[in-house]
């Protein structure tokens, strides 16, 4: 036992204490608050300021493309701002105030659609300061918030919001309740507006969903002569697809109204495009009566044809 004890003491006595290594010498010495951040060069400041000024100036350039809110694909459409007007087209404006009046009727207010309509019209026009917009909305001039939003987008434009109540009242008085419910007010309202707003003697009606790519002032040079309105032809829709030729022949033989043509109707004639109209308000006295008469006669004719069909 003593031998084992001596061997343990000898091994223990032969151990040498290890000196701790100084690892601080391997690290870099830290001197706080002596190493400052690098100062950027003045050239970088100048370039950054020039970039900000350049981006700000880009906001004053006219719009070259737009996206229609009704387009599900949200494609960018370029404005046709480089087309030159026809030399044979003359510019005619309202004789009273020297403005080109543009009217649009919207059953449910959508500011995005109106903004696109106004922007496309102003951007493609050579005389944007001569355009005066009249937007007929459900609330009209009572909707101050919508008006100021449009003025923020188009601060230098002439635009007004009008109500629809008076126009609807005239149509209701001239028709029955069933006829009124079946009428498309967006197609009839443009012809009733001059009787409510007598200052609008001649104007251009534009559907709110329409995007104008050409110069709208060129339409004012069209000579209406004795006609109350002018519309473009839509040959994708034909007359015989809406009304039977037998019905038209029967109406011409039996009815005598000033709005019925004396000559036979062309059965495959192109239908008018009612989304863009040039209207002379001084010659619209009998229009509402004619529209309601045709609507009533055609509805009766459709019922008669259905009832006369063999079982």
Name of the CATH first level of one domain? Alpha Beta
Sketch the major β-sheet.
6 strands, mixed
What is the H/E order? Answer: HHEEEHEHEHHHEEHEH
* CATH fold annotation of one domain: Spore Coat Polysaccharide Biosynthesis Protein SpsA, Chain A
CATH superfamily of one domain: Spore Coat Polysaccharide Biosynthesis Protein SpsA, Chain A
User: How would you describe the shape?
Assistant: elongated
Number of strands: 8
Radius of gyration computed on alpha carbons: 38 Å
Query: Can you give the helix content as a percent range?
Result: 25-40%
Catalogue the unreliable spans: 81-90, 301-311
The CATH architecture name of one domain reads Alpha-Beta Complex
What value does the average pLDDT take?
77
Strand portion, in percent?
Answer: 15-25%
Q: Helical element count?
A: 9
Strand order in the largest sheet: 5-4-3-6-8-7
Structural class determined from secondary elements: alpha/beta
Distance N terminus to C terminus?
Answer: 130 Å
Describe this structure in words.
The protein is of the alpha/beta class and 311 residues long. The chain has a domain at 65-237 and 270-284: Alpha-Beta Complex (Spore Coat Polysaccharide Biosynthesis Protein SpsA, Chain A), CATH 3.90.550. The protein has nine helices and eight strands. It has helices at residues 2-13, 42-58, 111-124, 144-153, 165-173, 177-182, 185-196, 245-254, 287-308, and strands spanning 65-66, 77-78, 100-105, 131-136, 158-162, 202-206, 229-238, 270-280. The chain has a six-stranded mixed sheet. It has a two-stranded antiparallel ribbon with strand order 1-2. β4, α4 and β5 (158-162) form a beta-alpha-beta unit. It is elongated, with a radius of gyration of 38 Å. The protein starts with a helix and ends with a helix. Mean pLDDT is 77; it is low at 81-90 and 301-311. Keywords: Glycosyltransferase, Membrane, Transferase, Transmembrane, Transmembrane helix. Residues 1-34 are annotated as: Disordered. Pathway: Glycan metabolism; pectin biosynthesis.
């Amino acid at each position: 036992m003593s031998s084992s004890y001596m061997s343990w003491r000898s091994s223990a006595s032969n151990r040498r204490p290890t000196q701790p290594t100084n690892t601080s010498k391997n690290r870099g010495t830290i001197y706080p608050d002596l190493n400052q951040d690098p100062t950027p060069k003045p050239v970088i400041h100048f370039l950054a300021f020039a970039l900000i000024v350049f981006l700000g100036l880009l906001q004053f350039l006219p719009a070259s493309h737009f996206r229609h809110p009704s387009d599900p694909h949200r494609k960018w459409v370029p404005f046709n701002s480089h087309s030159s007007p026809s030399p044979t087209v003359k510019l005619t404006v309202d004789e009273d105030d020297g403005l080109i009046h543009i009217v649009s009727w919207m059953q449910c207010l959508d500011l995005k659609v109106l903004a696109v309509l106004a922007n496309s019209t102003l951007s493609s026009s050579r005389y944007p300061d001569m355009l005066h917009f009249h937007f007929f909305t459900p609330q009209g001039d009572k909707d101050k918030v919508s008006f100021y939003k449009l003025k923020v987008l188009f601060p230098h434009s002439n635009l007004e919001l009008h109500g629809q109540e008076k126009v609807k009242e005239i149509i209701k008085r001239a028709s029955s309740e069933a006829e009124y419910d079946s009428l498309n007010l967006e197609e009839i309202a443009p012809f009733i507006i001059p009787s409510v707003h007598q200052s609008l003697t001649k104007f251009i009606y534009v559907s709110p969903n329409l995007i104008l790519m050409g110069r709208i002032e060129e339409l004012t040079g069209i000579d209406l002569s004795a006609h109350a309105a002018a519309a473009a032809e839509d040959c994708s829709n034909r007359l015989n697809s809406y009304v039977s030729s037998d019905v038209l022949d029967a109406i011409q033989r039996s009815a005598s109204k000033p709005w019925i043509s004396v000559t036979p109707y062309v059965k495959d004639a192109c239908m008018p495009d009612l989304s863009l109209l040039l209207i002379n308000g001084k010659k619209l006295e009998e229009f509402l009566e004619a529209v309601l008469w045709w609507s009533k006669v055609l509805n009766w004719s459709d019922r008669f044809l259905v009832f006369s069909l063999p079982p």
